[in-house]
């Protein structure tokens, strides 16, 4: 499809989120009943220690999850949630994706057809479509069947073009899908037809991250060689590019980015621990944030809402508040109005995911996930810990909020997805 076929309705203001399911799971639900069949003598290992060796990564000391999904046969790399229904979609090392029920943990649909690891899953903004992206270069699309049934889905189409899919993002309003590839290209498709709307070819390395701006009018992408590109979806040429030739933008490769809700500022994280603030209207670097350890990459960036009313408007005009998470185990909270560090949140290992609660009045609460096997809910206004979420026996590789932010769903390297109440 030519660039002119991109309808204006897809690149106007994004729609509001629909009503959210407010059902929760009783945290006291019993997942497994263990039968007491009497005491047994403990065996001694060759060193004379009772019980033998207990590798630390095989022990789960505490599990406060309210549901689990153990169906993957390998690491789970991706998880996402439906915008209104109690559904999660996960993808893993077993070349499979699943749609499953957050409330019961039941498998609803097996998403097949990939020939390599499924590294991305995403529901469209209206919840009618689900996309999976894989290391095999395929993007596969399923759609919901029936108006009142969110448990039945059918395969729609397969999109091809990328060499290896690094990430996928749906447009905030329309049925338009964006994907970044390790072959330096970025692809844009129209659904349900599956027609290619645009191929952006302006990068020099794997396209590690990207997204639509929240207003849906522009696209921001970045690559492992350190180039940031800003696009009009209707044009194959970027509106502007920033490269490491400008020493102010030398990040040893870009690993993460996010755009503020006003669609005016991008915050970019680098492989060497640097963070840059970019004005999307000016096309230039307007700030540098130094809080992460040198040589430790910034893996995730997330904007948060710490205020309401006039205070929120003033904060947004100044750029807002952003959180950056790195492999140094830190999540740094920054005030972009002053370019100063507000607080530092500490994990025991790399931070892999950050999300702020979407419910009104809850935007100051953020959930972080880490390879230290734990997720945590924090109050970003003060940097205080609200709740710890434990149950994984391996690193947490991804997470997503569901049920209007009432739960967080996590993807574990040990092959299990868990559901926790956020507060």
UniProtKB/TrEMBL annotation:
Alphabetized, the UniProt keywords read: Repeat, WD repeat
Phylogenetic classification of the source organism = Eukaryota, Fungi, Dikarya, Basidiomycota, Agaricomycotina
Q: Where are the WD repeats?
A: 69-110, 111-142, 168-199, 200-241, 344-388
Q: What is this protein called?
A: Transporter
User: Acidic residues composition bias: which ranges?
Assistant: 14-26
Basic and acidic residues bias located where? 1-13
Query: Residue ranges of region Disordered?
Result: 1-54
Q: Which organism is it from?
A: Ganoderma sinense ZZ0214-1
SUPFAM superfamilies xrefs: Quinoprotein alcohol dehydrogenase-like
Concerning InterPro entries, the annotation shows: Quinoprotein_ADH-like_sf, WD40/YVTN_repeat-like_dom_sf, WD40_PAC1, WD40_repeat_CS, WD40_rpt, WD_repeat_multifunction
